[in-house]
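User: Aryl-alcohol dehydrogenase-like predicted oxidoreductase. Structure?
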Amino acid sequence: MRYKHFKNADVRVSVLGLGSWGNGGADAQGNNFYGRFTEEDCLKAMDVLIGEGVNLIDTAPAYGWGSSERLVGRGVKGKRDKVLISTKCGLLPDPEEECINSASYPSVIRQCEESLKNLQTDYIDFYFIHEPDRETPIEETMGALEELRRQGKIRFTGLSNFTKEETEEAMKYGRIDVIQPSFSLLNQTNKEMILWAKEQGIDTMSYGTLGGGILSGIYRHIPEFEENDIRNNFYSLYYREPVFSNIMKLLETMDDIAKAHNRPVSQVAVNWSTQQPYIGTALIGAHNAGKAKRNCEAFEWTLTDDEISRISLEAERLGLTMLEPSWDE
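Assistant: Predicted structure:
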């Protein structure tokens, strides 16, 4: 495993982190976001990742209505000293809606207590505001996070899905240690902000590394996912024409490089992201031990500078670098 040093947090973090969005399983509306899997499979994947040196697991109460946090709590039991836990506040599941913003001072304090209980721990390493709450002044939310830091219930403060301007405003009221934007070979829309944050000592946990699975190389024809699969919504852009066919052309270049190293295409995508000097750690989901092991094996080798350049130039030529996923309305 490779590691990077997070400046403001002053902590060593594996360049691969486990993203637990999909581990929440089905939500209250029955949306089973990433296909079918068992909790035991997810626990085995966590065990493999920790054994391979992955020391960061990211989750949130909005993932599976708290089930993802509870699963992470089970997975790190007896291994807490080996793992940095990242979770979030400010975006809560609601019985009548998918999620609601709730980042007031009392709400954040309450959410932290609930997460601590779910995670079976007495402190959280990285605590993020999941997304901006337009109804609550950021000063109020940051005040809650600073109080939780003083109490020792959280160690580091993060912002997820915030713009540069929103991040600058939050910095007026407390220290920001890390951000969590989407970033991949296909989606470099946040690169300018990530570079700016790096200059401030703020490191990045990026999500969407494999573009909803399309950069794994598994899908060579447009697949039919289950009705409520997230790839029919948040990542649907990648699975529609003409984008899909252009991604297939990009995969041909990645196929050549993968073949030269005798490695799967997914590891090419993982190394392309994690070898970017401005990315601290890339969050990737894993629902079984085999997938977890393959992801970790990406760090047994590296792409050359020429290979990174070749992939990047081909993505640019095909117009595939600014494809930011979003929820379909």
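The chain is about 35% helix and 15% strand. Confidence is low (pLDDT under 50) at residues 27-31.
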